[in-house]
Structures are given as C-alpha cells and as structure tokens.
Design goal:
By secondary structure, this protein is of the alpha/beta class. Helix content is 35%, strand content 24%.
Length: 148
Amino acid sequence: MIDFVIGIGNTLRRDDGIAARLIAELPSVPNVAALAVHQLTPELAIRLCDASRVLFVDAHYTAREPSLTPLSPEDDPDVAGHTLSPAALLGLTKVLCDHFPQGWLLSIPGYDFGFGEELSDEARAQLPAAIGMAVRWMEEAAKTRRYG
C-alpha cells in the first residue's frame, strides 16, 4: 500500500498555489507519493484504490492557522462536473474500489487569491508550520507500516 499527499490549487492565483509549494518542499518518504494538482478530478479515484491513507492540502481563506481534519467519504458523490471535493473523491474511490483510504485535509490560510505566482507574505509565514504538519503525517504513515 502507498500513501498520497495531494496538493490542490492554482499556482497562478497567488496563495491558492501554497499547496504546490508545500509539495515541492516535502522530503522523500518511502511509500508516500506527493503530487500537486489544480483540482481534484474523478480520474484520481483510480490512483487512490491502492492507497491506505491520503492527505489533501489546500488553501482556505477562512483558516486562521494550518489545521489537520479527518475526512469521511461522501455517501453519494456528485461526479457530474470536472472537479470534486476531497470527501467526494473518497466517496468515488469507495464506489469504484469497494474501499477508500483514510483521508485528512490540511487547510492552510490563504490571504490573496488574485493573479500572480508569488505567495503573500502572510501565507508564506504559514508554510513552515504546514510543512511540519505534513511531514509528521508522512512519518506517522511510515511508522505505522513498520510497527503496524
């Protein structure tokens, strides 16, 4: 089994790209795949079929500090569009694969979602704590596999 860290956001919309920045700065951990996407698409459900855990990372304008929240799959995911929420993607994975990985959402405060590639100073200040939370999540996954 593999674990995933999936960063969601548009790097051309300033703080919306903070998850991609986090993914780029993560250390390599065995059996953990990290990828950055602009949005969650139904095709990702197939990749999650073999996953045991997944950490979604996203910028949120309502967050005050980085926070980690467990997720449950949506019972009836709406897949009519091209983009899904993390819970809907877990629900679709459950429908397609008869199981789903344990899911978490790492929310990082975003302040400026205008056009541009640079993070705001406020968002950049949140990045070290968010990276630390993601690394601890990744290390916990590795420890669970060793001693599980």
